[in-house]
Amino acid sequence: MSKGKNRVMIMGAAFAALAAALAVEANAEEAFDLNALVEAAKKEKPINVYDSTGKIVEMAEAFTAKYGVKATGVKVSANSQLEMIIREAQAGNVQGDVALITDAPAALAQLMPQGFVESYLPGDMKEKIPAAFQNPLAISTNANVWAYNTEAYDKCPVSNIWELTEAKWKGKIALVDPLTKSTYTDWFNQLEKHADNAVKEAYKVHFGKDLETAEKSAAAAWIKALAQNGPLVTDGDDPVAEAVGAAGQKEPFFGLLSSAKFRDNEGKGYKLGLCTELTPWVGWTYTKLGLIASKSASPNAAKLFIHYVLTEEGIAPQMKDGKLPTNVDIKMPQDEPSGIMEVADRLFPYDAATGLDDFDRREEWQDFWRMNYSK
């Protein structure tokens, strides 16, 4: 099995646990007729597709050109998607027909049980999407990775995450504000629930002694120390990419950012480099779901778009940003700029078994970060 397929299967096994616990149901035809779906979609109103990446505009335009079914891509953050979908459903005024959403815990807790959205799996994709990613349908797994400035450093200047708690890096780390992006607090909870021993062992590797802490976990101790070391917190990945990768810096930031931002090396002349050896992980992953508004006036067009993003042609713009498709038949492009596939086995995988706990403890982790953060 290829590294890419193996990686998808590993992450899928973890994701399956949450879906099973919630008994999520997905609609999937036993017989699938793409031509019939296209013809049915052409008779419906245009659709809007929500996604947190601007690439959705390009994807929707390509979809329209291919099928003659009008789709408009709308860049909307995961948090805003949740609010809009709930509000539109309650008002009976659906504007977003398809939601490609990275906040899987919230979608499973707030959208699906209330019937605001539904999961749809095209019949011809059942053998291509691992069962773990089918209910609900996940279209890709995404990654946040630790990065450095290759102009300022010959190699990654950090070899262990505990180094980031030391005076050397005080005020020189950049990341998205955990108070504004829930995937970060989910990550905190995942560390505590599934990787506390690894965090503890990393401490011993770096400092040569066992961790002694008054905190309830090694993960909490690391998160507290990181917050107290005055990191630059931003409202998105773009400022992190600039702080880390902008050319001409003598002392650039070290940062945590989306693998998608490595495209800025070409687009903006940045010098972003992926840390390929970092104890215990070089980054972490999360999942993007593909959901359809239950009250969409154009259900066939919405289904057609879901089918489209499960194909190589459809998901290609996001693959260039290091997004790994769940369709195991699709290979990552050779020119993907981050090199994420080379470190896929060194990413901390999201374990959906505690997805609802991640959701329930978001405020707790936000308070913990807020209480300990200092500039």
What does it look like?
The chain has 375 residues and is of the alpha/beta class. The protein folds into two domains: 3-141 and 286-336, D-Maltodextrin-Binding Protein, domain 2 (3-Layer(aba) Sandwich); 143-284 and 363-372, D-Maltodextrin-Binding Protein, domain 2. The chain is built from 14 helices and 13 strands. Strands 1, 2, 3, 4, 5, 6, 7, 8, 9, 10, 11, 12 and 13 form a 13-stranded mixed sheet that branches. It is globular, with a radius of gyration of 21 Å. It starts with a helix and ends with a helix.
CATH homologous superfamily annotation of the largest domain: Periplasmic binding protein-like II
- The CATH architecture of the largest domain is 3-Layer(aba) Sandwich
Number of structural domains: 2
The N- to C-terminal Cα distance equals: 47 Å
Structural class: alpha/beta
Helix segment tally: 14
Residue ranges: pLDDT <50 for 5 or more in a row?
none
SSE order: HEHEHEHEHEEEHHHEHEHEEHHEEHH
**Helix coverage percent of residues?**
25-40%
